[in-house]
Specification:
The complex is a heterotrimer of chains A (102), B (509) and C (626). Chain A has helices at 6-26, 30-54, 59-89. Helices cover 75% and strands 0% of the residues of chain A. Chain B contains 19 helices and 2 strands. In chain B, helix 11 packs antiparallel against helix 14. Chain B has one domain. The chains are: A mainly alpha (102), B mainly alpha (509), C mainly alpha (626). Chains in contact: A-C, B-C. Chains B and C meet through helix 12, helix 14, helix 15, helix 16 and helix 17 of B and strand 1, helix 5, helix 6, helix 24 and helix 25 of C.
């Protein structure tokens, strides 16, 4: 079986991570920001799996399951927060939620 | 054991006074008064018991020590010598007066007020007694916090500012001292394997000159801010002028003395070489303080602020004398600590009484009061004269001894300091002129001193005159403290340093 | 003699009782306490004096208690009575008593009656301590004590702002001198390890040789104290202003006793001055200069009391001159006689001022000769004594001795003599100018109050003393009677004369007599016979007149040099420039706060960007380092 070169796989994961990061930075809608965070999480999960397969260790997959579990928790808490923000501010614009300014 | 009782009575009295407020507010006054009277009687009893310390053989009259936190070498150890005893008597005496002077002035949260007064004085008592450096730092902080409340809650119009300023100055400098204490602890521990905060053991710590200098500066910083020495004096006029009368009295009469006491008890014996090295600079600071304080006092128009700056000037004599390293100057310093406590305290009490009557501290709004209040005027005259160093009153003895001792060491500084007395004349007489003499300002109808105020001020007059005519009582009491201290620092000096300036001892010794 | 301690104690008790209870007692009781305590002290002085003289000892010592004893510095509350202090306590208690009696009437309508006597008694006590002290620390106590009483009494009428100013000026200016004195004490202590006067006097010649530096410096410092207290150049400016006090105060403190404390100090420490010939020359020069300067200033004054004040400065200048040529007993003799006639003149002037309803300006007085005969005659006697009219007045004998020794004494020289002679001439001119203006001519202000017995009796007693007081010491040419100098001889060495001058003494005396009398004549011509002449002179030398009138411009000089810069700097620094430094720290903290608050804007994406940039920076740094 021809294995995919590790550089390609890591490049993919890096691109995904950058896409997610850019999404978080430029989107103002909180839901889209949350989605972008998910992409970043999965990108890093991918990197773990690649590394795990490279050294034939199960740790990479273990970490990915961790990340999945964490992402699930994060989404549920995050969505709850988003709902609260929407109730309070009547908008999903993250820049409007700047009450913590100094 | 009796030493511990001093502190316990004050602390327990403070708690009781606070609690008593719930039921009978005026009871707290009586509780704190009783606590001070008991302590004063005990202190005087020790004094009498030891025959005025004239023939005392050992330096320490009484010692007390129990383990507190043994794993760190921290002991709850107290010790009393002549110097501490004198200062304790002064503490309790002024304690009684500060309760008496607040009898009518303080009506808001009486219990908490007296709690603070008692705890400040408990802290001060602890500072004067303790021989464990950790405990010393503990008491140093204990006296700080209640004082902050005293200024911040019961002070005048700008009290918050003054309270913060006081706290930050003393706390910041206190932290430097804590660093130095811990540093000393580890150096001593590394050397001997015995990790202890015990004063007597730390006395034998050997240090390289560089380390000694830095540690010494840590202590020095805390003490000169408290004293205060120019240029670290600027908390004092604010704190003094904003504090309630009792607060000013305690600040001027006692809190400043802890700085002087610290220099004498800790800085000189612990760091003899570095002290000798620093001496010319410290004396210079003293001289600058004398002149600069007098200079500022002359231009003030706020009566309490004016008196506060005279403290700066008078405390200059203390640091000048401490670093002259001879018995004459040291005895002068002790006299100065006590007489300044009495005379400046009395001036603050008078300023407070005037404030109670006309609700202003501005001397431009005063004048010609003598006609209406001759009794108050006479007493003010006596303390104004004390403050300008008139012979026959205690302050003269203090200044004369300090200067004659300093003269053996540094002529130029003594000359300038003596000129400071001329400046003292100028600002002191200005108080008299602006407040009591001159054209009568008629729109104030003011009453002469009440019976209570007379009971407060007359003893002060008696004491200041007594100290002026019979200063030997105090000198004898403090004698044992200095004779050996001078020797210790001298011999250490010879052993340790060869490139260090020799401590000049008076030729007469 | 063991009653000696009572002499200063009685006035002290008087002061003490008057301070405590004076306001409750009646005036009669107060005056009994005030004058009585001093009178009793005077009586005891008589007893002690007789005892002392008949016991034919040199000194008597009384130790009350050990005051201070620290590391070798030992000072006791101890009194030392010898001939020198005996003369002083005699003058202080007797003249003091007369002035107290006078004050009872003079102050009778004043509301501060008890206060006045309390201060006055305190003064007498301090002055007695000053001259009786056996060590310099105790003497310093008396020294400052009299300074304090002087302050209190100059500013006695405190509701006048200018009295308070004069009082403070007096205290502060003399304290400048006291600083020098204090430093002198420090040096003496360092050298001798004691401040006991007698010990120093015996040890000094062994320790130092004549003409070396240490005694010179110490002598000059002591002199500094003396010129402050005795109002000599350059610290003389306070005395004319001190006339703001009541007249008895001027008589007691600013004429008879306190201002001569400097003379006492130098006489008391004469051993040190003898070791420093240069210092003696300085003393003499200061005396000579001061007596001339003050004399010229006195010529131009309008205020009766200011004339007398300048004259006091001038006469003390004579005493300093005498001290400077080593004529110790002549100085003390002149001190005693001066105390009599100057107290007399001040008291008489006070009576005149009181009679004319507090009028001080001489030119508004006049023709009082017939209205106030007692005052006129006693004033005349005092004036004659001040002007040293020959043979009959005591002032002649005392001043003549100084004049003679200024030239003929071993350390004397012709310049001192000429200065003293010129001074004598001016003295008689201004004295009789004063007399003629006040008592002769036409009446300008109505007399509304004739003095009573309590005022006239002290005047008469002092007038008698001003006449006969001089007979205790007569010069070689006139009877050669040396009671006074013999008395002082054990304490103060006698002066030795230059060679071959003794025969000239009568010529000198004749010159002095002629000079004094011609001064009177000049005054007569200018102020009585043809007053327009004096006006003409005044017009032609207006600037000079103004200059002299202002006391040679010293006040303005010191004002510009010391007072105004000090007040100016003090006022601009009222808010303490050091505090500004700490305020700077506070401002800086607030500034940083503003700066960082800006980054805390609450926008989530902004923070994220920060995290990303931070991460990149850290990664980059990590890469570079590895």
């Amino acid at each position: 079986m021809n294995s995919i070169p590790i550089e390609h796989a890591l490049l993919l994961s890096g691109i995904l991570f950058m896409l997610g990061l850019i999404g978080v930075l430029i989107r103002r809608n909180i839901i889209f920001m949350l989605v972008s965070v998910e992409i970043m999480l999965n990108a890093s999960g991918l990197a773990f799996i690649i590394a795990g397969s490279k050294w034939s260790q199960p740790d990479g997959q273990v970490m990915f399951i961790f990340i999945l579990a964490m992402a699930a928790a994060e989404v549920s808490v995050g969505l709850a927060l988003i709902l609260q923000i929407y109730y309070q501010l009547k908008t999903l614009d993250s820049d409007a939620a700047n009450k913590l300014n100094g | 054991m009796i030493l511990l009782t001093f502190i316990i009575i004050l602390m327990a009295g403070g708690l009781m006074a606070w609690i008593a407020e719930r039921w009978v507010p005026s009871l707290s006054r009586w509780i704190s008064l009783t606590a001070f009277v008991i302590n004063l009687v005990m202190a005087l009893w020790i004094w009498v018991q030891s025959n005025g310390l004239v023939h005392s053989e050992s330096v320490w009259i009484s010692k007390f020590s129990v383990a507190w936190i043994p794993s760190f070498g921290i002991n709850f150890s107290l010790a009393l010598d002549g110097l501490s005893l004198l200062l304790l008597v002064l503490t309790f005496f002024l304690g009684i007066l500060s309760v008496a002077i607040s009898w009518n002035e303080i009506q808001y949260r009486i219990g908490f007020f007296h709690f603070n007064i008692l705890w400040v004085l408990a802290g001060i008592t602890g500072v004067f007694l303790t021989t464990d450096l950790f405990l010393f730092y503990f008491f140093w902080e204990v006296m700080l916090v209640p004082m902050y409340f005293l200024i911040g809650i019961w002070g005048h119009e700008n009290r918050r500012y003054a309270a913060y300023k006081f706290f930050i100055f003393t706390q910041a400098s206190g932290l430097l001292m804590l660093l130095a204490i811990v540093g000393l602890y580890f150096i001593h521990g590394n050397q001997t394997g015995v990790y202890t905060f015990d004063y007597f053991q730390l006395l034998d710590t050997k240090m390289s000159p560089g380390v000694e200098r830095w540690l010494m500066l840590g202590f020095f910083a805390a003490f000169i801010v408290k004293l205060p020495v120019v240029p670290f004096h600027s908390w004092l006029p604010d704190a003094h002028s904003q504090a309630p009368t009792a607060g000013s009295l305690i600040l001027a009469g006692l809190l400043l003395k802890t700085g002087a006491y610290g220099l004498i008890r800790f800085v000189l014996p612990l760091f003899p070489v570095a002290s000798a090295e620093l001496a010319p600079w410290a004396m210079l600071l003293g001289v600058v303080g004398i002149i600069y304080g007098a200079f500022l006092a002359f231009s003030q128009t706020d009566l309490k602020r004016l008196v506060a700056y005279t403290s700066v000037s008078h405390m200059g004599f203390v640091i000048l004398g401490v670093f002259a390293f001879n018995e004459l100057a040291m005895q002068g310093v002790v006299m100065q600590m006590i007489t300044h406590g009495i005379s400046t305290g009395a001036l603050f009490i008078l300023a407070g009484s005037i404030y109670e009557r006309i609700h202003t501290r501005e001397i431009t709004n005063m004048g010609g009061f003598w006609k209406q209040v001759p009794f108050m005027g006479t007493i003010a005259l006596i303390f104004v004269l004390a403050s300008l160093g008139l012979p026959g009153l205690g302050n003269f003895v203090a200044e004369f001894l300090t200067l004659i001792g300093t003269w053996q060491v540094n002529k130029v500084y003594t000359l300038v300091a003596t000129l400071g007395i001329v400046a003292a004349t100028a600002y002191s007489l200005r108080i008299m002129q602006k407040v009591f003499l001159g054209k009568e300002i008629s729109h104030h109808a003011i009453l002469d001193l009440s019976m209570r105020e007379k009971f407060i001020l007359v003893p002060l007059v008696v004491v200041i005159i007594g100290l002026g005519l019979f200063p030997q009582v105090v000198i004898d009491a403090a004698k044992r403290t200095f004779a050996p201290a001078a020797e210790v620092s001298y011999t250490k000096q010879v052993v340790n340093g060869n490139n260090v300036q020799t401590i000049k001892k008076g030729e007469h010794e | 003699m063991n009653l000696l301690w009572l002499i200063p104690t009685l006035p002290f008790l008087g002061a003490f009782i008057l301070v405590l209870f004076g306001s409750r007692f009646s005036r009669l009781v107060n005056s009994f306490i005030g004058a009585g305590s001093v009178g009793l002290a005077a009586l005891i002085t008589l007893f002690v004096g007789f005892d002392f003289l008949s016991a034919s000892i040199n000194a008597y010592q009384y130790v009350a208690w050990q005051w201070l004893d620290v590391a070798g510095l030992s000072a006791a509350f101890a009194f030392h009575l010898d001939a020198l202090s005996l003369v002083f306590i005699f003058v202080i208690t007797f003249v003091g008593f007369l002035i107290h009696v006078y004050s009872i009437e003079f102050m009778k309508d004043d509301e501060g009656f008890a206060r006045f006597f309390a201060y006055l008694n305190l003064f007498v006590c301090s002055m007695l301590i000053l001259v009786l002290a056996d060590n310099l620390v105790l003497m310093y106590l008396g020294w400052e004590g009299v300074g304090l009483c002087s302050y209190l009494l100059i500013g006695f009428w405190y509701s006048e702002e200018k009295n308070g100013y004069a009082a403070r000026k007096a205290f502060i200016v003399t304290r400048v001198g006291d600083t020098a004195l204090a430093i002198g004490l420090f040096m003496l202590f360092q050298a001798f390890n004691t401040l006991n006067i007698q010990d120093i006097a015996t040890q000094a010649p062994q320790l130092w040789t004549v003409g070396t530096n240490p005694p010179l410096i110490i002598a000059l410092l002591l002199l500094g104290g003396a010129v402050g207290k005795s109002a000599q150049l350059p610290l003389q400016t306070w005395l004319p202003d001190a006339m703001a006090g009541p007249s008895p105060v001027s008589a007691l403190i600013h004429a008879a006793t306190m201002v001569t404390a400097g003379v006492y100090l130098i006489a008391r420490t004469h051993v040190i001055f003898e070791l420093a010939p240069v210092a003696l020359i300085v003393v003499g020069t200061i005396g000579a200069t001061t007596l001339l300067l003050a004399g010229f200033a006195a010529l131009t004054q309008y205020d009766l009391k200011r004339v007398l004040a300048y004259s006091t400065i001038s006469q003390i200048g004579y005493m300093f001159l005498a001290l400077g040529v080593g004529a110790w007993s002549a100085a003390i003799f002149h001190f005693m006689i001066h105390a009599f006639f100057k107290a007399l003149l001040f008291l008489a002037a006070g009576a005149v001022i009181m009679a004319l309803h507090h009028e001080h300006d001489m030119f508004k007085m006049g023709g009082l000769k017939s209205k106030l005969p007692v005052i006129y005659w006693t004033f005349l006697i005092g004036a004659a004594s001040l002007a040293a009219l020959p043979f009959i007045t005591a002032g002649f004998y005392s001043k003549d001795q100084i004049l003679w020794l200024a030239w003929a004494g071993e350390n004397g020289n012709i310049w001192f003599f000429l200065a003293a002679l010129l001074g004598a001439f001016i003295t008689s001119v201004y004295t009789f100018r004063m007399l003629f203006i006040v008592f002769f001519g036409e009446e300008k202000t109505h007399v509304n109050h004739a003095p009573g017995k309590l005022i006239s009796t002290p005047l008469i007693v002092l007038a008698v003393l001003s006449l006969v007081g001089g007979f205790v010491e007569l010069p070689h040419t006139l009877g050669h009677f040396t009671l006074f100098s013999d008395l002082l001889n054990p304490v103060l060495p006698s002066v030795s004369l230059k060679q071959d001058v003794e025969s000239l003494e009568w010529i000198m005396q004749a010159i002095a007599a002629v000079v004094a009398l011609s001064g009177v004549y000049i005054a007569y011509v200018f102020y009585l016979k043809s007053p327009e002449l004096s006006d003409k002179i005044k017009e032609s030398g207006k600037t000079l007149h103004q200059f002299w009138f202002s006391g040679w411009g010293f006040d303005r000089l010191y004002d510009a040099l010391f007072v105004r810069p000090f007040v100016f700097l003090a006022n601009i620094n009222k808010n303490d420039v050091v505090d500004k430094m700490y305020e700077g720290v506070v401002t800086m903290a607030i500034g940083f706060n503003r700066l960082f608050v800006f980054t805390q804007n609450g926008i989530l994406r902004w923070y994220l960007m920060g995290i990303v940039i931070g991460g990149i920076v850290i990664l980059t740094i990590g890469l570079i380092i590895s």
